[in-house]
Design goal:
Elements lengths: L10 H4 L12 H9 L4 E6 L2 E2 L8 E2 L8 E8 L2 E8 L1 H8 L5 H9 L3 H4 L2 H16 L10 E4 L4 E4 L5 E2 L4 E10 L8 E7 L10 E4 L6 H13 L3 E12 L4 E10 L11 E7 L1 H4 L15 H10 L8
Parallel strand pairs: 1-5, 9-13
Antiparallel strand pairs: 1-2, 1-3, 4-5, 6-7, 7-8, 9-10, 9-11, 10-14, 12-13
Bound molecules: zinc ion.
């Protein structure tokens, strides 16, 4: 039975803010909130931000540079915005700016100061990535104007609206053997770009017209040659790099012979629970912290993972 409470990735939804979706076109309210001294602003230079002492750096509205204003929402009565400034306008003034990928080691490690602000961080970065990548109307090539407090882009020529996108990706814990027994194994792979000994659950993007369950079966077969039967939903996690929504599944293998594709996955193996606990010669590194990959493995293992990277 999967463990569904107290898993690290769940922290993302527990701490979610009220996004105030109905207020995004209320210009009077937006102006009033922006003028309020309690309001805080996260400044981005393009898609990069500048943490200070390991935490997100929030400024008052009057300290914010000019840029695209995005309403994030509120928690405990404090309204928060993001401002997406042009990199040339701020980078020189404000020192070191980091992309989300540079913060990953601390997010993966579960750094509390940063993890507690992940819903703000992912909301702001996800929209910044979308604004950065969506420069012109895909229908007529016209210029776009930010509306709905940064959550829509409207073509100034033909009027076609653009909406922020999330790309569905599946991530799965594939198992074989009698469930719960010492013989049960989990399938983990090493990405072609990773060093020896680093393993994680398999993952891949859902294709148009494909169900999520079929995407799980296709990706596992393509990457490792393993046939998958039953697929069950586990949970999800936004991952704005630049726009993924990771949809987690557990899956049962129908075959156990492995033949990796050699391009995306360089190596894949079946691991027992003893292997994952580091009790065997298969000393490995697996993701820990807030990643749903870690949650999938911990749920199967029945205890926290300690062999992190
Ligand atoms: Zn247009």
């Amino acid at each position: 039975m999967p463990v569904t409470r107290d898993l690290p990735h769940v922290a993302l939804s527990v701490r979610a803010h009220d996004r105030e979706g109905a207020r995004r076109t209320d210009e009077d309210w937006l102006t009033q909130r922006w003028a309020d001294d309690s309001t805080r602003v996260l400044v981005l230079a393009g898609t990069r931000l500048r943490p200070i002492d390991g935490a997100l750096h929030w400024v008052r509205p009057h300290q914010s540079p000019v840029g695209t204003r995005v309403l994030l929402g509120h928690v405990d009565g404090v309204t928060r915005f993001a401002v997406i400034a042009k990199p040339d306008d701020v980078e020189g003034q404000l020192g070191e700016w980091l992309g989300l990928r540079a913060l990953f080691p601390r997010l993966i490690a579960g750094d509390e100061a940063l993890v507690s602000e992940v819903p703000w961080l992912f909301h702001a970065i996800g929209l910044a990535e979308w604004h950065w990548a969506t420069r012109f109307c895909p229908r007529c090539g016209g210029d776009l104007e930010s509306t709905h407090a940064g959550h829509q882009l409207q073509c100034t020529v033909c009027g076609k609206p653009q909406f922020p996108r999330s790309d569905p990706a599946v991530i799965m814990a594939v198992t074989t053997g009698e469930p719960g027994s010492d013989d049960e194994r989990i399938l983990l792979g090493r990405h072609a770009s990773w060093p020896e000994g680093r393993f994680s659950t398999l993952a891949g993007f859902c294709e148009p017209g494909e169900t999520l369950e079929d995407a799980v079966r296709r990706e596992v077969l393509e990457e490792t040659g393993v046939l998958v039967g039953e697929v069950s939903y586990f949970g999800n996690q936004p991952w704005p790099l630049p726009a993924s929504l990771m949809l987690g599944f557990t899956a049962r293998a129908l075959s156990d012979e492995i033949e990796v594709d050699g391009t995306e996955v360089a190596e894949a193996r079946w691991f027992s629970r003893a292997d994952l606990r580091g009790e065997t010669e298969h000393g490995i590194a697996v993701p820990t912290g807030i990643s749903i990959s870690s949650s999938l493995m911990e749920s199967w293992l029945g205890e926290p993972l300690i062999v992190g990277w």
